[in-house]
Design brief:
This protein has 14 helices and 24 strands. By secondary structure, the protein is an alpha/beta fold. The strands form 6 sheets. The protein has a 4-stranded mixed sheet, with helices on one face. A 4-stranded mixed sheet has the order 2-15-17-16, with helices on one face. The chain has a 4-stranded mixed sheet with strand order 4-5-3-14, with helices on one face. Helix 5 packs parallel to helix 6 and helix 8 runs parallel beside helix 12. The chain binds uridine-diphosphate-2(N-acetylglucosaminyl) butyric acid.
């Protein structure tokens, strides 16, 4: 297990390219199961969750080449319809293979994902919708066993707008018999990326970017190619790296529409932000960091995946801010670690109340999950002295070598490999 050693206090400065979106890739990759043949996914980020999905698809029989950032997946010879526990326990998004396997092969066996570092993350909406489409679902020995000779179109309503359930049911419905309507669908950009890829494959989908998707099932799809959208969470994390160190940054290859809420909040906090084509420029060099409340919500709201990073930024604001997570009520594992760096944060129910302090002081801190780790790195960049962030394997799940990007931007951060971290 690796750790990061950060010598804080260096201003982030320079320009950097944003990688492809992890959460788009994790939906696009299983979608290739829907059509026999070779599909290409361009701009795929090289990060550990993508490698986990590669292992899972390879286990199912897919043949995969990953050159630079182009992933070629050949699904001509799928020989196994089981997603085993060893893969699913590493990454909950493995459950994305359920919809496409069931749609194309009439059966699938997928390990139940279980809990997650910050509390329960159910998949009831995925399963209830598949049942409504005629699937027979049994939970046996920790596995979801699903079968349906032919899925049937149905009208679905999600009580909660769920990214994963929308993606799974979208993939199931494109090969179902008849029309499926998904009400209260997710409109996150990663779902739009998926829907557009499915259309490239021959699917009939209307209502993209709206909360009602109408899918007319087709008999077969063909393999296709698509680009992966830029990672709005990596982009937001890098913008905060500049903000928290009073630096300046130019993000390349990013559509600002993907993270409008984050950009507007950064402006409220005192940063100067300019957007020019596919670039976002942020200047925080003479900023007075203003406490700025956020409340997470579904797209286009402030993303829950940026909540921990925002908390890190607000630890140094000139006053008190409140950060509420309405998507995941318990997603505050980063807080006790930020407190070890000198932050003053009190969590009440699903809100972190952050009293800004004059400075953070380097210490050893422990990563507990992906975005929590990102917040610790950000705090470490701003802290006086040395911060060691242990267990950065959490970070490696979702960021493509973030320390290399930060080094290019002037940060003093290095990766140290060792067993005990
Ligand atoms: N929910 C249910 N039942 C379900 C599914 C979801 O009650 O069957 C609830 C969840 O408990 C949560 C809300 O619905 O309160 C939204 O969850 P969602 O299903 O949208 O989350 P997800 O699909 O499991 C994706 C991202 C997460 C991100 C969330 C929210 C992927 C692979 N993961 O998860 O990303 O936090 O959407 O935007 O796309 C991350 O990248 O760090 C990450 C955790």
């Amino acid at each position: 297990m690796d750790k990061f050693i950060i010598n804080g206090g260096k201003r982030i400065s320079g320009s950097v390219e944003v990688s492809g979106a992890k959460n788009a890739s994790l939906a696009l990759m299983p979608a290739t199961l829907l059509a026999p043949g070779k599909s290409s996914l361009i701009n795929t980020p090289r990060l550990n969750d993508v490698y986990t999905m590669i292992k899972l698809l390879t286990h199912l029989g897919a043949e995969i080449e990953f050159n630079d950032h182009t992933l070629k997946i050949d699904t001509s010879n799928i020989t196994d319809l089981t997603a085993p526990y060893e893969h699913v326990k590493k990454m909950r998004a493995s459950v994305y293979v359920l919809g496409p396997l069931l749609a194309r092969y009439g059966r699938a066996k997928v390990s139940l994902p279980g809990g997650c570092a910050w509390g329960p993350r159910p998949i009831n909406l995925h399963l209830e919708a598949l049942e409504k489409m005629g699937a027979e679902i049994n939970l046996i020995d920790g596995y979801i066993e699903a079968k349906a000779e032919k899925l049937k179109g149905a009208e679905i309503y999600f009580d909660v707008s769920s990214v994963g359930a929308t993606g799974n049911i979208l993939m199931a419905s494109v090969l179902a018999e008849g029309t499926t309507i998904i009400n209260n669908a997710s409109i996150e950009p990663e779902i739009t990326n998926l829907a557009e890829f499915l259309i490239n494959m021959g699917a009939k989908i209307e209502g993209i970017r709206t909360k009602t998707l109408v899918i007319e099932g087709v008999d077969a799809l063909s393999p296709s190619d698509t680009g992966t959208i830029p990672d709005r969470i990596e982009a937001g994390t890098l913008l905060i790296a500049a903000a928290v160190t009073k630096g300046n940054i130019v993000l390349e290859n990013i559509d600002s529409g993907l993270l409008r809420a984050v950009v507007l909040k950064l402006e409220s906090a005192g940063c100067k932000v300019n957007v020019l084509g596919n670039q976002i420029m942020l200047d925080a060099s003479d900023m007075n960091l203003t406490p700025t409340d956020v409340s997470t919500s579904i797209f286009p709201g402030f993303p829950t995946d940026m909540q921990a990073q925002w908390t890190a930024l607000m630890t140094l604001a000139n006053g008190t801010s409140s950060i509420k997570d309405t998507i995941y009520y318990d997603r505050f594992k980063h807080v006790p670690e930020l407190v070890r760096l000198g932050a003053d944060i009190n969590v009440v129910e699903n809100t972190a109340v952050v009293k800004g302090v004059k400075c953070l002081k380097g210490a050893k801190v422990m990563s507990t999950d992906l975005r929590a780790s990102a917040s610790l790195v950000l705090a470490g960049l701003a802290a006086e002295g040395t911060t060691e962030v242990l267990r950065v394997y959490h970070l490696d799940r979702g960021y493509q070598r973030i320390e290399e990007k930060l080094q290019l931007l002037g940060a003093e951060i290095k990766r140290v490999s060792g067993k005990e971290y």
